[in-house]
Fold this sequence. Notes:
Radius of gyration: 22 Å
Amino acid sequence: MRQKIDKIYGELLSRVRVGSMTVDDIKLLEQRKITIDSSLSYHDRLHEVCNYIEKLPLDTVCLVPTCKQCDLMNSVMTNKISSEEIILKANDYIDCPKSLKKKACDTLIKIKEDASRSAGLAGTIVIKIGAKVMLRRNIDVTLGLVNGAIGTVISISKSIDGSKIQGVNIDFGSGKVNTIERAKVKFQLLERAFVIREQFPLCLSYAVTIHKSQGLSLKNAIIEAGNSIFNVGQIYVALSRVTELGGLHLINFDPHSVKANLLAIEEFNRLRKIYRSDLPPIPVSSRRWHKVWDLI
């Protein structure tokens, strides 16, 4: 459904999904690699990628395999903005029996900044006026305030005494400023120990991990699909976020890293044979493509 306007790209992704790429598929994807001067230093190459991103439309997101790469890209892009840092700290309330209080507090300290373990809301978010952010909750579908919406921070709203940030004012591309307030979530820390967290449902959106990008549909994305890919299906997830081939930009692309779970495909075929014999079996490919080393 995402690629219904680009049939050729959709068919390519169907082959990537099951690890059955063709030579033509690889050639097509390699044409989408951006040009980076390999003679530059690592630092200069990183900034060249960031400069490339700045020339793309506002809704462009960089998808990378690891959290470390994500944090690095967001940090470099945010540092380009001259305004002061705005620190958004979560308000956490522990709900547990007194006997578990200390253990719960210690556990919360360990996972406080891990949004994947705290219902998607980070303990600390650092933004700037002018920074690009992504909404991580559905707030109002009629206004386009949905999970994955990208906008620019215009200003913040504070309490009367100026001690608390009550809202982040964001333009999501419509020219109208929407105020995003804290969301409240409850997640489990331990058995019989929960945390109620109040935090803005936002994250910097220059880069997100491929894992966190699941569910997004993007017109434009710049993707790291090289040697740092560490799981089957990871490249498929990244490439399939993009609605058409023209919006795809690759930093690195390693065909050897395009892998599918063969056991899963065999199970699909077993079930098809029993219940849907009218459908052809999914082809299983054991071919391993040549490795292309990254330009780091």
